[in-house]
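Give me the 3D structure for Epoxyqueuosine reductase.
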Amino acid sequence: MDDLQENLFALLREKGAKLIGVADMEGYTENGLNRGVAVAIPVPAHIVEEIKTNPTIEYYQMYHTLNAQLDEMVEAGAAFLQKYGFRARANTKKNLSVNDDLRTPYPYKTVATKAGLGWIGKSCLLVTEEYGSAVRLSSLLTDAPLEPAIPITESRCGNCRRCVDACPGQAIIGTAWTAGMPREDIIHAHVCKETQITRMREFLGFYEGERVCGRCFAVCTYTQKYLRRTLSSKAHS
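Predicted structure for Epoxyqueuosine reductase (237 residues):
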């Protein structure tokens, strides 16, 4: 790893990134920004522990807090690269459009799998070894000559069906992901959306455009390992 990449990673860690990776986006972008930098922050374990049955206001608030932190993080990363003469675009929430089919041009999850951070679980969320699916993601695109990681191209969920069985809307199909698989083979996205809205109104009493549920990632086997490791260490500290 050269100095540019080391210094970029150091900046992103200073801003709170716990997982960072570089993706080769060649052939995926149309603007010459052929490197993607994926970042992830875990959702605090005590909040995840509380949403295994229903969403909470604490999770909703943390969702916004982490998203704002990630936006600031990738904006700082893009500015750092621009200072050295490279083009860079921060994929902040305001910079990413979502169409009527709930798709965006450069999904955070796609950059993250190409950057080696994790794989797509049966829930259609990114699953990481370290934190399961209990992460919030963001990314930036650049033409800086960063060294890409080895991408993850297959599911590591095995026969686990915890998220499938836990989904209150039965939106998750249960398919094991491989890179390039259509989203429709993994999840009924609009059913997931409507389920989130219904549960927010039921358990939080409101819906204002941002959707949360969290049940699928809270019960994930890898998420549960993160919870046990984190909560047990706090109990003994």
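Helices lie at 3-14, 45-49, 57-83, 108-114, 162-166, 189-203, 215-219, 221-235. Let me know if you want a second pass.
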